[in-house]
Amino acid sequence: MPYAVETRDLTRVFAGKKKHWWRKPKPNEEESRGPVTALDGVSLQIREGELFGLLGPNGAGKTTLIKILATLLLPTSGKAFVAGNDVTKDPFPIRQRINMVSGGETSGYGLLTTRENIWMFSQFYGVPSKVSKARIDELMHAFGLWDKRDAKVRLISSGQRQKMNMIRGFVTEPDILFLDEPTLGLDVNAARTIREYVMNWVRGQSGKTVLLTTHYMAEADEMCDRIAIIDKGKILACDTPENLKRMIHTQTTFRLEVDPLQDTSTFQRMDGVVNFSLRDDASKNRTELTFILENEAPVAEILSAITAQGAKVHALRKTEPTLEDVFISMVGRGFE
Amino acid sequence: MTAAVARRSDLRFRIGLNLRSIVGRAYPRVIGANREPSWIFFEAVLPLLSIAAYVYIYRAIALNQVAANPVDAPRILANMNALVASVVLGGAMVAFWLNVLWSMASQLYWEKEIGNLQLYMMAPMNRMALLGGMAVGGMFMTSVRAVSTLVAGVVVFGVVFQVANPLMLLAVFFVTLIALYGLGMFFASLYLLWGREAWNLSALMEEPIFFSSGFYFPLGGLYQSGGWGSVVAVLGSIIPAGLGLDALRQLTLGETAFGGKFWVLSAPVELEILVVLAVGFLILARYALAYLETLAKREGKLTSRHQ
């Protein structure tokens, strides 16, 4: 049985900006002109019926991978297959089977109602009008958008708009659904509605597959059967959330909330520190440090190093490993 | 994939898919665009002002001629009616040219900006069905506006049309529209390739095309002016509105209007040329879009505004 999605050594390089003789580059612009490797030898197999997560920080290559799988981009090298079809050679059968929804999408036409917009997109997949309208009504109830069915799209909130986008993704009854940060910027309730629907959709019927990209750890942890952690275009690890966290179960995670620090280079040199990340919280004027340690021994040395800089420790707690800790353990920084 | 979700790809399915896609994409223009009543003021009433300017100039000239030569008044007034009718007809066709420029040629660029383009490119429909839907919707939407302008022109300026061959008139009208929108479909891909610079090209192509295609005067006059005037008129005829308008004027005013001196070619010949232009532009549009899609997928910067 073919995989729902399979990539083999997939690489995508963006050429970078062209130089124009009439335009002087701005300072530091030279560095950003060069080619960018968005995907670097990515090999993945996603089974039919799987809810597969792609977890990584912004710019990791998640969206590029989805665009290649959605037949919107060509790979520079390597192969990608969706539903057994090569994305470069045979896009038509792929396009019949897939759909994609991205977070923060502003697609559709403001003058049309939510219902009309979704109906319009369903026509591009050949869904008979009557069938489409019945599905839209059903999905609008499921996503709690029924009250807004006749509201013009330009007049609804961003959360309602994202629900509309999700319905657009489901209305064509795809076999494989690509969700690119679908809950980005949504309130808790809207995000929960979407997450629950997606999980029920995959697990409540056979043959449905979801590839979800996100940089929300909890979301990936809660929803996904398996997760691939991606950074700088490379897959760092791929397993179930439990197994990924088990990778660092022999290690210890500590989180500290401290005053802003001048120097953090000493931490990396300490014995027993596997990796650490820091995140500044400007609202509190504090820094949150996450340490992945081999054991608890270096904690005293870390606290001494902080207090030696005149900084105060406001909180210190030992935590269960999260997916972010797995990421920190691998690359030495957090997602933000 | 399981057999239960096997998808169809036979010819009948593809035809149905593409017809639905055309209807789907035409829908926002047919229904959505008429939801805002403000269009009546902006697109039916305001164009009358441009028409009025030409009408009053032509009337003033004619009345001066009548005052100087009262014996020839019937001929002068007939000519004046033909000129005013030409302007009203041209004013109505302006709506189509503006629609082609701003809502066809620049549409894919705009779709990219709002994020629709990648959803269109990801769908299984034929890309020509997308452009076809835009064109059909645009034709319908603009026909409502053009007819409003035409009716208002007839009522306000008392223009008299004489249609001897309504079938030929309809054929010329529809072939002109197909050729015009075919050009718009071709431009749509070019505009997307050229980005914002092409937007300026649209602005640049308004007034010069109004002139070189004879929107407010019989184009034959420019042809016969000799020198640069003839060159401009020949170039303007590549835009299908020029020959289309000339044929429409012949068919609504009679071949003898203006003493039969100001026509470019006979209406049947112009219809034949328009058919060639229509087919040519549609073929160009098909290949331009295929090229654009390949480029978009290779360079990855056309379907997303962020890349």
Summarize the entry for a quick read.
The complex is a heterodimer of chains A (336) and B (307). With 336 residues, chain A is of the alpha/beta class. Chain A has twelve helices and 14 strands.
What does the model show?
- The complex is a heterodimer of chains A (336) and B (307).
- By secondary structure, chain A is of the alpha/beta class.
- Chain A folds into two domains: 5-245, Rossmann fold (3-Layer(aba) Sandwich), CATH 3.40.50; 250-320, ACT domain (Alpha-Beta Plaits), CATH 3.30.70.260.
- In chain A, 33% of the residues lie in helices and 28% in strands.
- In chain A, helix 4 (114-123) packs across helix 5, helix 4 packs parallel to helix 6 (158-171) and helix 5 (129-142) packs across helix 6 (158-171).
- Chain A is globular and about 70 Å long.
- In chain B, 77% of the residues lie in helices and 0% in strands.
- The two termini of chain B are 32 Å apart.
- Classes of the chains: A alpha/beta (336), B mainly alpha (307).
**Overall number of strands of chain A:** 14
CATH class of the largest domain in chain A: Alpha Beta
CATH architecture of the largest domain in chain A: 3-Layer(aba) Sandwich
- Element pattern of chain B in H and E: HHHHHHHHHHHHH
Report the biggest beta sheet of chain A as strand number plus sense, adding barrel if it closes: 6 strands, mixed
Overall helicity of chain B: over 70%
| Biggest interface | A-B, 47 and 43 residues
Query: Reading side by side through the largest sheet of chain A, how are the strands ordered?
Result: 6-7-8-3-9-10
Radius of gyration from the alpha-carbon trace of chain B, in angstroms: 22 Å
Note the overall shape of chain B: elongated
Helix fraction bin of chain A = 25-40%
Structural class label of chain B: mainly alpha
Low-confidence runs of chain A = none
Approximately how much beta-strand content do the residues of chain B carry?
A: under 5%
Average pLDDT, all residues of chain A: 90
Q: Which blocks of ≥5 consecutive residues of chain B have pLDDT under 50?
A: 1-5
What is the general shape of chain A? globular
Q: Please give the alpha-carbon distance between the first and last residues of chain B.
A: 32 Å
